[in-house]
Amino acid sequence: MDIFTNSPIHPFFFIFAAVFASGLFILNRFFSKRGPQQLPLPPGSMGYPYVGETFQMYSQDPNVFFTSKQSKYGPIFKTHILGCPCVMISSPEAAKFVLVTKSNIFKPTFPASKERMLGRQAIFFHQGDYHSKLRKLVLRAFMPQSLHYIVPQVESLALHALHSWEATHEINTYLEMKTYTFNVALLSIFGKDGAMYGEELKRCYYVLEKGYNSMPVNLPGTLFHKAMKARKELGRIVAKIMAMRREMKHDHNDLLGSFMEDKELTDEQITDNVIGVIFAARDTTASALTWVLKYLRDNPSVLQAVTVSFFLSSQSRILLN
Length: 321
Ligand code: HEM
Hints:
It is built from 14 helices and 2 strands; from the N terminus they run αααββααααααααααα. By secondary structure, the chain is mainly alpha-helical. Helix 6 (128-141) crosses helix 12, helix 10 packs antiparallel against helix 11 (223-248) and helix 11 (223-248) crosses helix 13. The protein is globular and about 65 Å long. The chain binds protoporphyrin IX containing FE.
């Protein structure tokens, strides 16, 4: 999932985002039960009443806001954003504490404006039976048995990307990885229909993405307003694909197929989760791939070992066939 990013330093901000959410819950619990004076809160500033430091964050690139806070207060600091007191973290140890060791005491929540933009029925905003059901449906679509159908198409997307770089002197790896992961996401979510509606989906998604971290003011002309309009249009495209599939009555191994097989899910729930998974999968994976490429380039011996292992496995596949 991605909240505050547009560069390959994204993992830090993803952790910020994840813990932004979890931190809110913890802080709210402390504030409501014990009173703020007894809290062992980290350093930081809470800004003005209610608005907190929201304007400081949105008056510049959010990455600048976080970086300057981080250098002033260290990897764990408190602030107040979008009406919520919160704790931001960026160290691997703190991330492990929140996401693994003590994940049972944290509950994921998002600011209301982000929920509205992604869709309130998306998996991230729920717990309990509905959450478990969605998790199973998502996992089912990403099991090796389901994914193996699309391996040749994923390979051709990768080859297409490689060829397109041949003509250029320099590329921005992270942006290229974002394009590549978006194409793979469309393929794994919509199968062949992803290609048919790809351009429309991309156009809307990019507008949505641009407004995602903007100030949540829903007035004509604002990035937020444009993003909300694009979000509605994305919903209409997904509805069109679902209607087409219902008419054709074919089974599909992709994520949309997995959701549609569950007869209890409403179309709105399916749409919110399809869009949610694009958000969850795209920048995270693009970021990880960017770092993989960097480390392969920086370590020629590892690159050689990976190349040999890839060559051997493709040779054995040819022999087996
Ligand atoms: C390197 C890439 C990725 C990273 C670093 C990453 C990281 C994360 C993290 C930290 C969470 C929050 C976990 C929690 O709250 O306990 C999460 C949730 C989630 N991610 Fe990823 N993710 C990645 C790729 C993907 C991909 C490719 C998909 C596509 C299926 C995906 C789908 C999801 C979903 C659906 C959730 C919500 C799970 C839930 O609420 O139960 N992620 N991801």
